[in-house]
Write a structure and sequence with these properties.
This protein is an alpha/beta fold. 44% of the residues lie in helices and 17% in strands. It has two domains: 1-30; 46-188, Glutaredoxin (3-Layer(aba) Sandwich). The protein is built from five helices and seven strands.
Length: 189
């Protein structure tokens, strides 16, 4: 009888350990692509979201006079990787949901067409920059606060002093960007 109890207890413990491992991997897989791994399973992370939307859905913010905060970026952009955790923290502190518009795929192919650019450009041109050929270009990270279909404020890039291809942001630069994003989030409320 003791052996039977010992076997049952061992099987129960093994089943619990297997279930825990399975739950952990499922939770990790269930995180959206915009989550930071270390905060992915955080209970506090539910107060705000980074919801991925298509470029067409972003255009609808303007054509349908919607309101919200749009974040244009992509996963392998070094400036986005510096800015996103700061934006996420500030948005969370202010209870703001961010609409994430992914502009490039993993191979850095553009995910919007020239026609889509032509449609959105009049709405966001004040927050776009010209490239070396003088063509108005969508640079990321780009954060825009949209109210009733109009951009009321926005921020492109990180800081003029920062080149993400050369180095990480300093603590002072992170504080400066935090202040910029905090101002934007206050305008979104």
């Amino acid at each position: 009888m003791k052996k039977l109890l010992l076997i049952l207890l061992t099987l129960t413990l093994c089943a619990c350990q297997t279930q825990t491992k399975s739950t952990a991997s499922t939770s990790k897989k269930a995180c959206d692509v915009t989550s930071e791994e270390e905060t992915c399973n955080s209970k506090d992370d539910t107060k705000t979201t980074f919801k991925e939307i298509s470029f067409d859905e972003a255009i609808q913010y303007f054509t349908q006079e919607k309101s919200g905060v749009l974040y244009f970026g992509y996963s392998s952009c070094p400036w986005c990787n510096e800015a996103k955790p700061i934006l996420k923290k500030v948005a969370k502190e202010n209870g703001i949901d961010i609409q994430y518009v992914k502009v490039r795929d993993e191979e850095k192919n553009r995910l919007y067409t020239d026609d889509q650019k032509v449609i959105i450009e009049p709405y966001i041109q004040d927050y776009m920059s010209s490239n070396d050929e003088g063509i108005l270009t969508l640079y990321v990270p780009l954060v825009l606060v949209v109210k009733d279909g109009k951009v009321i404020d926005g921020h492109e890039g990180t800081l003029d002093s920062h080149d993400a291809t050369e180095r990480k942001m300093t603590n002072d630069e992170k504080e400066q960007l935090t202040k910029i994003y905090t101002k934007l989030m206050s305008e979104a409320n």
